[in-house]
Amino acid sequence: MAAATDDAGDSNEMIRVVSSDGEHFEMPEAAANLSLVLRHMIEDDCADAAGIPLAVVAAKPLAKIVDYCTKHAAKSSGLTIEEAEELKRFDAEFIEVDTDMLYDLLVAADFMGVEGLSKLAVQRTADLIKGKTPEQNRETFGIVNDFTPEEEEEICKENEWAFQITKPPSRLC
Amino acid sequence: MASQSLGAGRPWADLPTDIFDAVLRRLDIFDAVWLTGVCTSWAKAVANNPSLPFDMPCLLMTHEPDYYDADDSYDDCMFDLHKRCTTRHIDDEPVTAFMRELWGRWWVGANGSWIATVDYYCNAQLINPYTGDWIELPPVPILPDVEWSHGIRCYAISRIVLCETPPLGSDNGAYLAIALLDRPPRFVAIARGSDQSWTILKNKKRKWSKRYDDAIMHKGKIFAVVKSGDIYVWDVRAGYDERLCEPEMLRGPNIGRPRYSVRQCYLAETVDGGRLLFACTYGSPCPDERMGFYVEGMLLYELDINVAHDGWRRITSLGDHSLFLGLNYPFWASTQGKTSICMHAVV
Predict the structure, then answer these.
(1) Domain range spanning residue A145?
(2) Could you tell me which residue ranges the KIB1-4 beta-propeller domain spans (chain B) (predicted)?
(3) DSSP B252
(4) How far is CA B163 from CA B40, B115, B116, B330, in A?
(5) CB–CB of A134 and B130 under 8 A?
(6) Verdict on whether the full-model pTM lies above 0.90
(7) Does A144 share its domain with A89?
(8) Where residue A77 sits, what CATH number does that domain have?
(9) In this predicted model, what pLDDT tens digit does every residue of B299-320 receive, in sequence order?
(10) For residue B97, which residues of chain A lie inside 8 Å, CB to CB?
(11) Is residue A160 located within the same domain as residue A81?
């Protein structure tokens, strides 16, 4: 019980962070603790009124990350089934973003060490890739086909077995 | 960075490696292979993924018969192979894949993406399950003193050592294969791409009824080892001419009196290809002979064949490499950064 009181006391303190483009954000300490990098900075007493600068995270993804951490920190322990479901719904809606934002979240969550968000963004990326042809994936992610015609032919030939079969029939699994 | 991506979009092509690998772990093997077709950097990222032990995908084959539904219309699965494709999805069972090309055939060797198979009548083929290419190997020559069985001249190729595989995308079928025949007469034969027939490597020093355990190509010569550990060497660098080409004999390492009643000898090369490797597994008999034997230990030696009077040296550590021996052409895998392979293991 004592520990819980302490935690509650700590999380009342607000942590300031600054995006690469100079915007300031605030979140409870419990939320900031979900980021490995922020937690280390707080533990090292680097969190001051000027805010922790995050040199590679722009304002738009940082706003999302603050949002994510605040939500998850508030519901971190002793979840009821309904609350867990609500958090799941929040995640599902949260990650419904375009590929530009998804990329920024992937890189920022990785940089800041927000494990839950990293997993969420990686899973979303994998879901976008699944079942798509190379051409469809290029379109989804805005990637230019930089193979020479010879290289492309070779790849097609080498991987013909997989390009022809989408999935093995389920009875064989 | 931006050169590979469109306009203002994010540089997905250059996604950091650790993030790309995390995404890859959530995909099955088919999606992963499809990713290699997206762009050069993703192709490289898939190829370099450390969670894939070798060139992916791995095809693991067993001698178990296929299992299939009773109402399945496929007949004669009895001698077929049970093929398992590994997937990198950690939580999943491996995907079992059946290959139509291999029904009714045994696999007797492999190298890289090529599998060597034979059917009941000893017709040998090379099959590439990834590209679907196949090459018919030449027929085994009929010898006058071949044993007859059930009215047919019966051979049994127990092993095809695929020393050189056909280059990808070429139709000329350039390969070099050594066949070991495992029913008297037992002999070693070689075939190269476009040969009309296997060439039998004659050996007057040895009875036709004696078995060869393994063979390999090393520095342009064919080495075949027999149970006693002795090795016969045919120099085929200038082509094969049977009048000139009785083998030299190379004494195997002195492994002392065999402590165990059964053993199997293998040949391989060191990682750099510079020295010949001799491996011997020993153990005790298994009640069912077809299952091989219970292996209880292994001895490993190396020799530089170009150094006169160089003796066999015992090897006790393979460093950070693993050596794979068996029906597959022997190959080395580096164990650095690959937790799925034990250090200095011979498998």
Answers:
(1) 134-168
(2) 101-336
(3) P
(4) 30, 12, 11, 10
(5) no
(6) no
(7) no
(8) 3.30.710.10
(9) 899 999 988 777 899 998 888 7
(10) 168, 172
(11) no
